[in-house]
Structure formats: C-alpha cells, structure tokens
C-alpha cells in the first residue's frame, strides 16, 4: 500500500475548489504537491480575493476570498489544490480605502497582476492589437523548473576583459537583411553568435526584456503615418517575467525556455549577458494611468508620493518606485536573485540608478540601504552591477555613486569629453588624459573597472549620426522636435545629413574610426552601441524610443556598404583583446616599478616626453609599457597612441625603444582601407622609427615589439 502525504491536505472548499492556509513566503505563486501556493503583501488592504482563469478565457472560473484567518501580518496566502498548472492564469482583487490624500487607491473590482509573477500572459505576440475590453489584460502565470541547463553557470569573466555590446532584442535582427528565421526574437540572436564572436564581443547588454506594454502611449507619427509605440521598453509591467513578444514561441507561452536557451548558447560561446533593469518607475504612470498591479495592491508602499498623494516624478515618466521602502527593496533583491539564479544572468545595468539612492521623500540618502544590500547580497556576489548614475530629477552622481567596492558606472563624463575632443573643441586634452586612464579623477579609490566607457548608447545619436548631424531631427516622434537631448556635442563635418560629397563622407568615416580606436585603447570597460561597428544611422533622430521601423532595426547590408568601418572595428576590437596592458585593474602610477626603464604610462606630444595640455592644444600621445601589464604580472608589447584632432598634419617624435624592439603600425585612421588597420600579429614594421606624420583629425596606434 502506498503512503499518502498528509502535510498538504485541503481544509476549506469554495464552489468545489479545495484549498487551505498557505505559506507566507515566498511571495508569488509556487507549485507544491497537488497544488499551488499563492502569497501576496498589502499593508492597507482590508481583504484579498484570488481570481483564477483558464488560459485566455474572458471570465474567471473561480474567485476565492482569502479567509482573514489565512492572513499573517500584512500577507495573504492560500494553497489551492488540483489546478491545471499549464492552463492556469491568476490575479487578485484587493479591497480597501480609495483615499489618494492618504496614498490609497484601492478598487475591489479591478483584477491585479501579481508583482512576483514569473510569466505574464495576454500580450503574447509583439504589437498584436489587444482586446481593449479584456477585464484582465496582463495575466499572471506559473513558470516551470524543468529547463535543462546542461551544467551552464554564469561566466564570471573579469570585467576588465569584457567588450560590451548594447543591443535591443527586436532591433538586432528584425530587418529583413538579417536573414534569420525568426526575426526580432531571442532565438534570432542565437543565429548571430558567430558574428558577435568575430567582432570580439564577449558581453551583450540587453535593453529591457521583461514584460512591458509596447502599446503604451501609442499614437500616429505626423511625419510617417506609422503607429508610434513603446519600443525601448523602459516602462515595466512586471519585473520577473521575460517579454513574450520577444520570443518566437511567446504565443505558446514558452518565452522562459527560449530566453534560457539563448543564454545557455551565449555562455557556451564565452559571451556574458547583462540586463538593463528599470527599478525607477513602472508602466502605471501617474494618477491618470492604468492600474495594473502595484497601485491597486499597495500604492503607498510601492510609490514615492507627495504630501498631497500625487506621484513624485524623478523618472520623467509619471511615477517613481519607492525603492528604499523595505518591502520594495526586498522585491528588487528577490527579482535580481531570481534572474541571477534561474536565468544565469551575468550582470545588471540599472536605469536612472540615482533614484535607487533616494529616500521616500525624494531626498538623496548618504547610505542607501538598497544599494548596500545589492552590493553585499550573497547570490549577486559575482554579478556585475552597473549604475546609470543620474536621474531625471537632476541628481547626477557620476564619480560619486555609492559604490561599496562593487558598483561600476556608465561614465557620462567619458562620453562628453570624447565627443568634444573628437570634433576638435579646445581645452579637452587634460580631461582626455584622465578619460583614457580609466578616469582616476572620478574613480581614484575604485580603479579603472568602475568606468564603463561609452561614446554612444541607445539614448542619443548613433556614432555615424554624431558626425552627420549638428542637431537632432526628431519630428517623426510627434513631439515637435522637443523631445531628446539638445547637448549632443556632435559635428556634421560641413553638411547636415546624408551627402554624396566624397570628402565629407571620408572625414565622417575617419572620425568614426577615431572614436572606436580611442574607446578600445582606454582603460576601463568599453561599450559599443549595436550597429556602430557598421555605421548605423537613425537619420538624425536622437530619441528613437517610439520607432518600430528601420530607424531602430539594424540594416545588415551596412556591412558591405560601410565595409571599411566594419573591417576597422573588427580589427581594433580584437587588438584590445590581444593586449592585457590595455586592461589594467588598477590605476597607473606614472613610474617604473618593474625595472623596465619606462613608466607604466607616459604622455607625449609632437616632442617625445612632452605633452602640450594648453587650452589651444588638440593633440597628444601616450605610451603604455607592456612590462607593467596587469601590474607587472604579465608581459606585453609597448603601445603608443597618437591623437591629432588638429585640422593639419603634425609630425610626432617617437620615443626610443629598448631591447631590439621596433615600432609596428596597428592602425592609422588617415589611411584608406584596408591599410587603415592590420590584423593582430600582422602589423607591418614602421620605416621611420624616429618620427611619424599623423594626418589631420586622425588617430594612430603603434605597437613596439
């Protein structure tokens, strides 16, 4: 006779559905023997009803009021038996006061998504028009623990060895030129893994991939007549659920497995996966927005509210998540632990991360509990944590973000300095010297790895547009060109937009190569925007958040059209991988501490060993001594980089090399392709070992070996 389990047995029944008291933790829906445990927190609700649907059904098959004796503290939990896990959708109804002045916005008739749901159904295909009469559009579902990881685990690549590629899942392969089977999906990225490896990319940073509503704020473009959507996805519906619309199998509810398969394949190929996470606001907007989940469950807990009960708007999108409330802080921790443990995610980039350091009244905290908790969390101990160290409320913390020895930052000052220098602004040489060293002026106590170096990202001009447009051209967004940043530090090289002028196009390509070169020879962690390596354009639009079209889709034919940019990018990115002296963990000491005869770094100008840092200077050079690579642990070649942003050629005296070493040419952006860059290990010997004529607005890289 088989023994019967007696630990889980029903004690109650409602319309034929059997249930019992549940476990308070963990929050969310958890499978237990013969049933599902549901648990949800609300500090102010007076009652909670569990609502159960068959998948896709317009009406629920059951509504079970959770008995008050099942509530422990402010947590409602219930265990329901004999449910069809595969077909189940669930939500909650919360009853309580509607008193905005006190912070409460309960409505007992609204069905609410579970903040801890691991899958959201109901929006299963990208841009399929929703049923606007659906009583429950974002439906909580269960995720299953049956995925075979085959021994996979996060890669834990040292951060200084990474080359990051910021990518939009849909935009990367949606264009027909990508020639993949399921364009715009997680699956399609797998088809492009050989391309990523060829480029030397070993980390992809994905714009938001959790469930968001692309129909949010939809409208028609006055210029193109196309529907404008929430394309980037910085407007979260649920923090735990991968977006079904990004999965080829989303219509079958298989988005979890599809995403895990992608991550497993990327890891097999040595490529880390970082997620762009948006814990600063949600898709519920301000008091005029939709009630989806948080607002109807516990508005006062989840959002920062003014004394009048309105929403603080430090995110620029209508509301601000109350991240340093202990309950919300725990949700953020639980969420990131889940992505790290169940999806093997390698790192997280935090959107508008300065918000995470604000108190409930909006003031900046000197010791933010959330940031400290994330830095010291045992499950996240090996994950990279990267802050966008500013917010829309004016808090700018680049170089001063509370780091706890763990946090890196998107270095906005690196971006701004390089853009000004590349277009020939005066007075940038001194700042440039800091930026190429990993910004010791900002990160002296944290090391160069605190600096995520970038010149472009999803937000702003592409690298091509930076040298093709003096000002933004965002009319297609339908906001009268008022949206997007005005301080782009761009230069159109003498003509606004596309041109047939060969001189202008040559200069633009040269400046793109200059930018990529400086990025790859700078200490810190380089990040390249998707498509910059092949000259992608957004036609001057610097805020394409709403464009689901060729402005955001990567045109793979650019590999042929801009073959010189693509070839250059590929080789200069591989060059960085080949030279550990470019990837130091500690700041330079500006001295010789290994007895090589050379300091670890030295600065030069047209005269060796003397750099002109005066306001009018637009050129300098630097030399790295390879004997100091990894603080003298590894041996590398000498590297010498000339940067001449002057409008005339300049002759640079070269430092003399010892031990029979000779200067060889790695890259010279003034030369026509393919002589502008050479493959790793095949750099030609430089004829004149004493002087180098650097062309106007060009960058030269030499290797001494």
Automatic annotation (TrEMBL):
Which Pfam families has this protein been placed in?
A: Alpha-amylase, CBM_48
Q: Which InterPro entries match?
A: GH, GH13_cat_dom, Glyco_hydro_13_N, Glyco_hydro_b, Glycogen_debranch_GlgX, Ig-like_fold, Ig_E-set
- Glycosyl hydrolase family 13 catalytic domain: which residues? 134-576
Q: Which domain of life is it from?
A: Bacteria
Key words of the record: Glycosidase, Hydrolase
Q: Does the keyword Hydrolase apply?
A: yes
Family that this chain belongs to: Belongs to the glycosyl hydrolase 13 family.
Please state what the protein is called.
Glycogen debranching protein GlgX
Natural source organism: Nibrella viscosa
């Amino acid at each position: 006779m088989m023994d019967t389990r007696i630990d889980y047995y029903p004690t109650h029944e409602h319309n034929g559905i059997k249930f019992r008291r549940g476990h308070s933790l963990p929050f969310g829906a958890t499978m237990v023997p013969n049933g599902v445990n549901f648990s949800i927190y609300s500090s102010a609700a007076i009652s909670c009803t569990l609502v159960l649907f068959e998948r896709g059904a317009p009406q629920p098959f059951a509504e079970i009021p959770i008995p008050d004796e099942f509530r422990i503290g402010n947590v409602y939990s219930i265990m329901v038996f004999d449910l069809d896990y595969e077909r189940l959708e669930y939500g909650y109804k919360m009853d309580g006061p509607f008193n905005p002045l006190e912070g409460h916005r309960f409505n007992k008739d609204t069905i609410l998504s579970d903040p801890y749901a691991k899958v959201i159904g109901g929006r299963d295909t990208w841009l399929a028009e929703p049923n606007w009469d659906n009583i429950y559009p974002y439906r909580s579902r269960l995720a299953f623990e049956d995925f075979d990881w085959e021994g996979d685990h996060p890669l834990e690549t040292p951060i200084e060895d990474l080359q990051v590629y910021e990518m939009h899942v849909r935009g990367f392969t949606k264009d027909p030129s990508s020639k993949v089977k399921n364009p715009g999906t997680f699956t399609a990225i797998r088809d492009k893994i050989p391309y990523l490896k060829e480029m030397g990319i070993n980390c992809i940073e994905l714009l938001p991939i959790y469930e968001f509503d692309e129909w949010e704020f939809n409208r028609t473009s006055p210029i193109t007549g196309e529907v404008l959507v929430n394309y980037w996805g910085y407007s979260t519906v649920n923090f735990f659920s991968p977006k079904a619309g990004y999965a080829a199998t989303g219509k079958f509810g298989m988005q979890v497995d599809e995403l895990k398969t992608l991550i497993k394949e990327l890891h097999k190929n040595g490529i880390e996966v970082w997620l762009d996470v948006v814990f600063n606001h949600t898709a519920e907007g301000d008091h005029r927005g939709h009630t989806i989940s948080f607002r109807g469950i516990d508005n006062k807990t989840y959002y920062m509210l003014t004394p009048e009960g309105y929403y603080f708007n430090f995110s620029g999108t209508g509301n601000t998540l109350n991240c340093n409330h202990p309950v919300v802080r725990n949700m953020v921790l639980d969420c990131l632990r889940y992505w790290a443990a169940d999806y093997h995610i390698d790192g997280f980039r935090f959107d508008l991360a300065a918000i995470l350091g604000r108190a409930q009244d909006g003031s900046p905290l000197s010791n933010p509990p959330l940031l400290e908790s994330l830095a010291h969390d045992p499950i996240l101990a090996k994950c990279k944590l990267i802050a966008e160290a500013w917010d829309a409320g004016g808090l700018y913390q680049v170089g001063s973000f509370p780091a706890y020895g763990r946090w890196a930052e998107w270095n906005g000052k690196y971006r701004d300095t390089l853009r000004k220098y590349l277009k020939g602004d005066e007075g940038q040489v001194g700042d440039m010297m800091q930026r190429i060293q990993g910004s010791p002026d900002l990160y002296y106590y944290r090391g160069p790895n605190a600096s995520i170096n970038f010149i472009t990202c999803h937000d702003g001009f592409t690298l091509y547009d930076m040298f093709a447009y003096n000002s933004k051209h965002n009319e297609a967004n339908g906001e009268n060109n008022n949206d997007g940043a005005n301080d782009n530090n761009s230069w159109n090289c003498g003509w606004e937009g596309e041109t047939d002028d060969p001189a202008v196009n040559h200069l633009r390509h040269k400046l793109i190569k200059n930018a990529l070169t400086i990025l790859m020879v700078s200490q810190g962690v380089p990040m390249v925007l998707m498509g910059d390596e092949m000259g992608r354009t957004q036609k001057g639009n610097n805020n394409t958040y709403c464009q689901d079209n060729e402005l955001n889709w990567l045109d793979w034919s650019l590999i042929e059209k801009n073959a010189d940019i693509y070839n250059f990018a590929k080789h200069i990115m591989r060059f960085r991988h080949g030279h550990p002296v470019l990837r130091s963990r500690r700041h330079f000491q500006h001295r010789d501490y290994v007895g090589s005869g050379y300091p670890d770094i030295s600065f030069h100008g047209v005269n060796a060993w003397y750099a002109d840092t005066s306001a009018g200077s637009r050129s300098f050079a630097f030399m790295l001594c390879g004997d100091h690579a990894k603080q003298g642990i590894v041996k590398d070649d000498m590297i010498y980089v000339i940067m001449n942003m002057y409008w005339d050629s300049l002759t640079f005296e070269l430092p003399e090399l010892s031990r029979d070493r000779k200067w060889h040419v790695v890259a010279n952006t003034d030369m026509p392709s393919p002589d502008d860059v050479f493959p790793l290990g095949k750099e030609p010997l430089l004829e004149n070992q004493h002087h180098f004529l650097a062309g106007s607005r060009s960058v030269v890289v030499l290797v001494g070996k």
